[in-house]
Amino acid sequence: MGARLLMILTCIRLAEDFNTDYRVNWFPQGADAPELDQPEELFTSDWMDAHFLNQAEFDALEKNALPIWAFQNDLSPERLVAHLASGRSVLVEEGFEVLAFPWEDIEAIRPRYRDFIRSVGFVDEILQIMNRADDALSGQGVSAYHIRRGDILNGLPWKHSTWPAKIEPEEFYEAHLEKSKGQTSIMFSDQPELIIRFKKRYPKLMQMSDIADLSGLTRAQRDFLELYTMSRADQVIAPYISAFSMAAARISGHQRKVFRDVLTEEELQAANDRVIERVARGPSEFLNPSEAAHIYAKAAQYLSANDRCEEAYDSAKPILDAGADNAFMPLLQSLNCFYLDKWQESETLAKEGLQNPHLWPEDYAVMCALRGAILGVQGKRWAATRHFAKAFWAKPLRPDVVVLGSRMLYRSHLAHRLLPPVDWSLQRVVRQRRFPPFNNLYLVQHKVVSWRPCNFDFVLLDWAELALDQRARRLFDQRKRLETLNAALDELPDVPTDDPRLFGAKVILQKHLGEISGAQAIDKTRQIVAEVPESTLYQKRLAELCEAEGDIRAAHRTMTEALDCDPESPFLLFAMGRLLERTGQTGKGEKLILQAADHDEVTVAIQGMAGQIHMRRGNKNKARPYLEKARDLYPPYQRFTNQLNRLAGNK
């Protein structure tokens, strides 16, 4: 709802400023929003006749259209004006920002959005309530609060992962309400019980029903009217991520505010202290055990960051005992045990937590990495590495996985034989900046590692194809990541620039950054291979450089030499197989990939690819064991479960 409305308002703005017209594709292909399937609940037929278009009309216009972002780096409007003058269209497909071009002043445009909404043809039933909202709130200095709960607490699968940017504790709202006593305020929430609780404490606090009774309206009508009413406030205060309140703020012509904008550091800390106190009083202080779990997730990090891990551990127990079945809770409690050196309890919680079918893919990776770190402490390097490998290949960029993996590497808890050829001695000192505190992290970094975490893009430099995560696989398409890795290599202490480990990695980076040619990269890498002929990693690099330059014979010869050095390495078998596939020898390549899978223990991508080879050949019975192993290594990754289901359905 919010995104579509904002796109309409942006179109109205552009049409007004560039003397043109606008059309709305309300039913874009692939959109899944059944509550919006009846636009006549909101808009008059005359307005829809004038501005709506169907998919065929949209497709015809799209052929000669350009997306709005194609003009957003221009320094003048000339190209956009000429484009429109030629009769061509512009596509507006983003609905969360007020749009301004470089030659425009966004602060002059932003306030205009507040009036654009009145250009839309709403039905009388909607208009009447819009007018009431304007009369009650506009120009009154009102603060509107949005509390996000709803499906996060009670819906599947949302309740099973934490949402720190969407959920803010009640104590933050209370702090601002106390600070702004005497001013008019209105609260919106997808959890009505919370508004009732706040109304008891703050009788003058308004809610939507104080303006109009929406109980007889449809879902779309209620959503729009709440969003519009919120937009009439002078400031909207909401969680960091909430499309609903963000859209309301944009429509209002103001920037949405978060609590860091409206409370001082002292006020925020005092609110956090009250959150921690409420969590310690137990789950009866919350709507249900699920809400207690979600608020606990925020409190636990603050406790651990301040070395109050025992309190975090004690506060989790009553929530678990009360029946909180949120899949992330065993992970948080296992982390508490990890901080407190309760190794056996930590491992038990992690082991049991990994059996929960509701665990999200990201959380499963963190739990695997945590269990690996626990096993490493216990001296079980092989088992530790198995768990780290599963976590790493699934989510190699996840901060928790990076920090826990760094700890394991620094403490020599990894068995390198289960991992591909990598300059591990160099990887130990290839570091990146610490992750921002509480930013997409479950753990508290300083409780896990004292050094900066590794930059594991150093591993992906050679083995990105083994990652399941698509962003991780796109290393060579993301220049910033390459430049960051290059800078990390420049900062290495006590490593001479002519060290083959450093020199070899720099050559690969320089080639992909366009600083040297492919031929130069081959010459330099040949020197390194001659200096360290037993290194299969350097041989693999040379083979791939030769392939990229079209010297397929040299590529095959060099990769064969690498494989001869370690003929049972699943990773080298896989690399040789993929090279053969890419260079036209599909049958030979597939044979080697199948051999790789037979030698491999922990790499989902290798197992999955072996299963897919047999599926393509029609060998269902041979495909099944590989796909089952891939699925069992990383159950949340649905691709292999789906393929197994297809096999079962084709019996």
Could you explain the architecture of this structure?
This protein is about 55% helix and about 5% strand. It is mostly helical. It has a 3-stranded parallel beta sheet, with helices on both faces. A two-stranded parallel ribbon has the order 1-2. The longest helix is centred in the middle third of the chain and has 17 residues, at about 265-280. The two termini are about 45 Å apart. The relative contact order is 0.05. The mean pLDDT is about 95.
Give me the secondary-structure topology.
Layout: H1 2-17, H2 45-51, H3 55-62, E1 66-67, H4 78-85, E2 90-91, H5 106-109, H6 113-116, H7 124-137, E3 143-147, H8 151-154, H9 170-179, E4 185-189, H10 192-201, H11 219-231, E5 235-237, H12 243-252, H13 259-262, H14 265-281, H15 289-305, H16 309-321, H17 329-339, H18 343-353, H19 361-377, H20 381-394, H21 399-410, H22 424-427, H23 457-463, H24 470-473, H25 479-490, H26 500-512, H27 518-531, H28 536-548, H29 552-565, H30 570-582, H31 586-599, H32 604-617, H33 620-633, H34 638-649
Parallel strand pairs: 1-2, 3-4, 3-5
Helix pairs in contact: 1-12, 7-11, 9-14, 11-12, 14-15, 15-16, 15-17, 16-17, 17-18, 17-19, 18-19, 19-20, 19-21, 25-26, 26-27, 27-28, 28-29, 29-30, 30-31, 31-32, 32-33, 33-34
